[in-house]
Known about the structure:
Chain C: It comes from Streptomyces griseorubens. Chain C: Keywords: ATP-binding, Nucleotide-binding, Transport. Chain C: It holds the Pfam family ABC_tran. Chain C: GO terms for molecular function: ATP binding. The complex is a heterotrimer. Chain A is α+β, with helices and mostly antiparallel strands. In chain A, 65% of the residues lie in helices and 7% in strands. Chain A folds into two domains: 234 residues, no CATH class; 61 residues, no CATH class. The relative contact order of chain A is 0.11. Chain B is built from five helices and two strands; from the N terminus they run αααββαα. Chain C is built from eight helices and 13 strands. In chain C, a hairpin with a 3-residue loop joins β1 and β2. In chain C, α2 packs parallel to α4 and α3 packs antiparallel against α4. The chains are: A alpha+beta, B mainly alpha, C alpha/beta. Chains in contact: A-B, A-C, B-C. At the A-C interface, α1, α4 and α10 of A face β5, α2, α4 and α5 of C.
Amino acid sequence: MTAALTTPAAPAARTAGVPRQWRWLVRLHRPALIGGGTLVLLTAAALVWLGGPLTDASAAAWKAYNACGFTPRCSYDQESILLYKDVYNWTTIAVLAVPFLVAAWAGGALVGRETESGTARLAWTQGVSPARWLASRLVAPAVLTVAVTGLLAALHHWAWAAGRDRIDTATSWHDMDTFHANGTIPMGLALAGLAAGALAGLLLRRAMAALAAAAATVGVLWAAVHTAVPYLWPSVTRVSGLAEGPLGRGLLVSEGVLTPGGRAEAPCVSSSMHSCRDTLADMGATAFYRDAHPASHYWPLQLVATGILLAVAGLLTYAAFRVLRRTTGTARG
Amino acid sequence: MVDYRIDRRSGVATYVQIVQQTKQAIRLGLLVPGDKLPTAREVVEATAVNPNTVLKAYRELEREGLVEARRGLGTFVRRSLGAAPADSPLRAELEDWAARARESGLEREDVAALFTAVLETHYPEQAAHPAPAHTPQGDPS
Amino acid sequence: MTVPALEADALGKRFGRRSWALRDCSFRLPAGRVCAVVGPNGAGKSTLLALAAGLLAPTEGTVRVLGAHPAAARSRVGFVDQDKPLYPQLTVAETLRMGADLNPGHWDADTARRVVAGGDLDPDRRIRALSGGQRTRVALALALGKRPELLLLDEPMADLDPLARHELMGLLMGEAAAHGTTVVMSSHVVAELEDSCDHLLLVGGGKIRLSGDIDDLLAAHTRVTAPAGADLAAHEVVESRTTGRQLSAVIRPSGPLPDDWRTTTPSLEDLVLSYLRNPAAPALTPAPETLEAAV
């Protein structure tokens, strides 16, 4: 009706430019980026310190300690040994905490806060389609997550390897915390946490609830991976004589005795003890066995576990897009 | 320039108020032939009334031959109304009369009633409102 | 201009298992109108607007926006949510810059700045420090800045003082006059919209009770005062009440009325209230064919 006086905007004149979301994503999450970045840099610096000067000092102290033998008065640098241990433990915890922090941030700030306050709807009516909006909130953080977890795990692995044969109390490769922090599992967990945070934010539309749900999901996934890891690659079985007890080092899967009826639980670990010999004889045991993973299985185990976590992350991402599409009725794009 | 004031409680349709106030301005010589009426946009920004209401009022004025719309330029006053510009002798006399009425103690309402009564005697049965010519939907626009 | 700005066909939205926020809604809003969506709180107004904005998917039926699926029309539609969500950590100026970045190719920085400028707002103020009315202004600036063909506003004036309300309503009307923008705004206060709107959608109990141009709707109804016991059966009765020896009713006459009945045209508020008081009154939503003929 107002056409007489006016020129209605011509739809054809609209250029279909791509909305520039990235800089606003960075701007909106600047405090988190600064805070997270600081934590990552501190952890990285601590790991470099750990692998370099701390390892050297601790190794020297161990050397001095071992040289002491049984001399009653002998001095060695106990401080360095304790400091190494502390820094090692804290940096390991820091590396393992990254997936939880990513998940909590994704659920709470990245998606949950936007769905709770309605700013997601603002974005969806400001030229950014819901799918594009979600994609922007997953892609850049995913790249950043991979970079951060990759860097920290690599540094952790390097620092751990630097002390491996020089520090007597250095953790073995299959110590569970070290096992996780040295490889790609934190990366898989963090990506799954990111996707879980996005999904929880879309479903719950409450920042705090999504934060808790995403962190809990990472906890459950971690427990599941922790339990499943020994079975993710065929283990090596070593059979040993009754007098030797079960032998074989590495990541333990199971152990016991071999009897004519098959594998059985070991009542005791060496026939050199009287009572044990009798019990083993009663059972008809012929040998001990132990299923374990040698150090060479480290990467196969890590990669299979990471693959499974990535698949979970993919499923969660798919679910998030599905939920978004179902609620907003976005036909395409 | 006219400054439209819409009184929501007058019971008079908004477009009629715009028509009346435009005529009033022409009658008082505030608008003379050749003057441009404010654009619909200017009117609605100032009054917050619906644009179509303003267009309806302008069309009504155009139908009465008071204004003409020139495409792309705006709406212009075509002719004057009555013979009572703001500074005419008739107005001076009325001012004089009103001042005397006030001095003699008449209230605003008394004066209005008196004026209306005299108006009715001299201008009987003048339609107060222009009748809407057609529904807004039928209007070609 | 024959493509309607908004067209719903048997539109319905259910939340959860059984609570229908909106059901069986069919209407058609021609382009260029300023439409009031009126109804009590919880009537389904927000749901209707969110469906049109492509923020919710319908459970049944369809809604078409500017002739397209709501998702496809997104860049041509402006929307302001009831809560006026904005990023609290951004400043006013940053929020407008974001609008420019998110709407490449069709951002009108001057309009956006003009909306904000009216409020005497410091561009360096953070959104979290703004009053409700100031937030409304920034939210409207974002919606108008993308120069939409259809503007959907959910309770836009609720947080504003009368002065700002008048000024912003004037600004909206100016946009509608200058660009032919179709404006749809909801409110539970009819008086607030009476002068600015020329089209009405009355929503009640999840249904469309009235839909059409306000002049037509008013013309279709008559308030009659008749002797008690007068027979209204020939007409559609919206509301009737007998006080003593007098019957007062709002009807849709379907023929000439007796001469001894006093008849007046109801006011918009009168009409809306009579429908809201009488949920069983027959709805008046012209079929699309009738509207087509009228446009």
